[in-house]
Amino acid sequence: MLTIEEISKSYRRQKILHDINFSVKEGEILGLLGPNGAGKTSLMRIINQIIDQDRGHILFKGKVMRSADLAEIGYLPEERGLYKTMSVHRQLLYLARLRGMSKKDAKQQINFWLEKFSIEDWGKKRIEELSKGMAQKIQFIATVLHDPSLLILDEPFSGFDPVNIELIRDEIKRFKKEGRTILISTHNMNSVEAICDRAVLINQGEMLLEGSITNLRDQHKEGLYEICFEGNMISFANALWVGYEIIEKIDKGENQFCVRLKMRKENSINDLLNAVMGQVKILSVHEVLPGMDEVFVQQVQPKKEVEDE
Question: In the chain, what is the straight-line distance between the N-terminal and C-terminal CA atoms, in Å?
Answer without folding.
Answer: 42
